[in-house]
Amino acid sequence: MYHNYFQDSEVKSEFKKEFISLWSGWIGENNQYKLDSVTKHEWQRFHNFLALLESKFQIQKVNCNTETLTKITDVSAILDSYEQSLNKDSSQFYQFVIPELECIISEEWDYTYIVWYRDSTTVATLAPYIRKAGLCHFS
After folding, report:
1. What is the tally of structural domains in the chain?
2. Averaged over 28-51, what is the pLDDT?
3. Is 64 contained in some domain?
4. Which member of 18, 36, 118, 138 has the greatest number of CB atoms within 10 A?
């Protein structure tokens, strides 16, 4: 199943990207100060988003080292705290697969997640969960 999504630890090139953020688009160089003022409550929106997804879909955690996907039964239990997330490097960022939607959700820098998808209906399916969590999305 892992190889349906990844090749050489990278998301397969056939996937398109949709970005999920606290903001409705890229903040740009002039607004980078906003990154330093993100509150714990705002940061928590990403966890809320994953919890909302977990209530509707099966979520699997990606392990690129072992090339495996592991079913998650409580996504909140594996996610980092606000304090832990401030000090981690990109090798510790999470990647999740939602098999039903054939998509990957990857944690990225600057308070952004990427949804990697093949079919645009995936974004439409995720949009209500993104909004309900208080997040924005854009291509």
Report:
1. 1
2. 92
3. yes
4. 18
What are the DSSP calls for the chain, one per residue?
-GGGTEETTEE-TT-EEEEEESSSS--TGGGTHHHHT--HHHHHHHHHHHHHHHHHS-EEEEETTTTEEEEES-HHHHSPPHHHHHT--GGG--EEEEGGGTEEEEEETTTEEEEEESSTHHHHHHHHHHHHTT-EEE-
List the structure tokens of 41: 């409550």
Band (89; pLDDT cuts 50, 70, 90): confident
pTM of the shown model:
0.93
The parent domain of residue 111 ranges over: 2-6+16-23+40-138
